[in-house]
Amino acid sequence: MSKPEFIRANWDWDKDYPMCQVVKCGDFLFLTGQVAFDLNGEIVGRNDMKAQARQIFSNMQHVLSRVGCDLSSVVRLTNYFATPMTDINVTKQYWEVRREFFGDHKPASTGMQVAALMIPEMLLEVDAIAYAPTSKS
């Protein structure tokens, strides 16, 4: 097996962050948790689950495109909600946006409520694993 490749997203805002956006290990891609940052590192959709989910999945698409893949390669999502999961409307809003991006593709998934994310205005963080035997470096 070849050594892992550490791939950046080429966003200006993450140049000083201590991680890359994706690690390629053989046929698998491990994506860093995506948050609702725009190209300037500003949070999109404060207090708006749909807007944040859209930004997160757009960011995920960008990261995957860096290795020649798309969302159809995703086999696993882990969803961290910094909002009360007792409010089913929050979950429904997230699912609605997820369907916009994934359509009928339904990767394995876990959702959990966390006490907080790294910035108080963040409502959601999503990390992913993708299987991409034809991905490029």
Question: Any idea what the radius of gyration is?
Answer: 15 Å
Oligomer: single chain
Looking across the biggest beta sheet, what order are the strands in? 1-2-3-6-4-5
- Average pLDDT works out at 90
Compute the separation of the termini in Å. Answer: 15 Å
Order of helices and strands: EEEHEHEE
Layout of helices and strands:
Elements: E1 5-7, E2 22-25, E3 28-34, H1 49-65, E4 74-81, H2 88-102, E5 108-113, E6 124-131
Helix pairs in contact: 1-2
Description:
The protein has 137 residues and is of the alpha+beta class. Helix content is 23%, strand content 26%. The chain has 2 helices and 6 strands, in the order βββαβαββ. It has helices at 49-65, 88-102, and strands at residues 5-7, 22-25, 28-34, 74-81, 108-113, 124-131. Strands 1-2-3-6-4-5 form a 6-stranded mixed sheet, with helices on one face. α2 (88-102) links the parallel β4 (74-81) and β5 (108-113). The longest helix has 17 residues, at 49-65. The chain is globular.
